[in-house]
Amino acid sequence: DGGITQSPKYLFRKEGQNVTLSCEQNLNHDAMYWYRQDPGQGLRLIYYSQIVNDFQKGDIAEGYSVSREKKESFPLTVTSAQKNPTAFYLCASTYGRGYNEQFFGPGTRLTVL
Amino acid sequence: DAKTTQPPSMDCAEGRAANLPCNHSTISGNEYVYWYRQIHSQGPQYIIHGLKNNETNEMASLIITEDRKSSTLILPHATLRDTAVYYCIVRASNTDKLIFGTGTRLQVFP
């Protein structure tokens, strides 16, 4: 089945540790995105990438880093510089700029203790 | 900042039509109206989008007013599985960004 996978579904880390969230897609999509969602709120864009080896900051990129070495993978690292990392993280992809539908993964719920 | 305004919550009886309103009074000529929904603790799901004309697909219908300042998403026969948060989003054709507001929490009851 084609789709987007995020792992793990739940992740716990100690304060001060960096943590990397996985996002993989087999839809042959060019563009990939990372969003953050806090309780009762909408999604906010962290980073996005339209092609391999290129990415742009979204609205809340501080404290996060990404890489796009392969078309199908777009991992997100939550660094210790992120002040409030506990949140629900969602990855999405689409064929490219202007395409209408973003496909979302199931999300990773990160809790920093 | 979200460019749309939606009621925070709505109820609908199972089998009846659910009509979800959205105001986007500052919409520009090149901006589309998109609807996504998010079932609890899952990723959002695309429903439908439109520019000027009304649109219909297997999931829903989208009615856009002639001045494009508001729209309504219609689920013709709501089921319990349609209980979710529904997001109305405007997006320019030359950008990838989807700006999510807080949406409308639709509760479908038996």
What are the salient characteristics of this protein?
heterodimer; A: mainly beta; seven-stranded mixed sheet; four-stranded antiparallel sheet; B: 110 residues; 47% strand; globular
Written overview of the protein:
- The complex is a heterodimer of chains A (113) and B (110).
- With 113 residues, chain A is mainly β.
- Chain A contains no helices and eleven strands.
- In chain A, strands 2, 4, 5, 6, 9, 10 and 11 form a seven-stranded mixed β-sheet that branches.
- The mean pLDDT of chain A is 92.
- In chain B, 35% of the residues are buried.
- Chain B has 110 residues and is mainly beta.
- The model of chain B has no long low-confidence stretch (mean pLDDT 92).
- Chain B contains no helices and nine strands.
- Helices cover 0% and strands 47% of the residues of chain B.
- A five-stranded mixed β-sheet of chain B has the order 1-9-8-3-4, with no helix packed on it.
- The A-B interface holds A 4, 31, 33, 35, 40-45, 48, 50, 58, 88, 90, 92, 94, 97-98, 100-107, 109 and B 2, 32, 34, 41-46, 49, 87, 93-103.
What layout of secondary structure does this protein have?
The complex is a heterodimer of chains A (113) and B (110).
Chain A (H helix, E strand, L loop, with lengths): L3 E4 L2 E4 L5 E7 L5 E7 L5 E9 L2 E4 L6 E3 L9 E3 L8 E8 L8 E2 L3 E5 L1
Parallel strand pairs in A: 2-11
Antiparallel strand pairs in A: 1-3, 3-8, 4-5, 4-9, 5-6, 7-8, 9-10, 9-11
Chain B lengths: L8 E5 L4 E6 L7 E8 L6 E6 L4 E2 L4 E4 L5 E6 L8 E9 L11 E6 L1
C-alpha geometry of chain B: globular
How confident is the prediction overall: mean pLDDT of chain B?
92
- The overall pLDDT average of chain A reads 92
Binned, the helix content of chain B reads under 10%
Structural class of chain B: mainly beta
Structural class computed from helices and strand pairing of chain A: mainly beta
Query: What is the beta-strand fraction of chain B?
Result: over 45%
Biggest interface, chains and residue tallies:
A-B, 28 and 22 residues
Strand/helix succession of chain B:
EEEEEEEEE
Helices and strands of chain A, in order, run as EEEEEEEEEEE
How many strand segments of chain B? 9
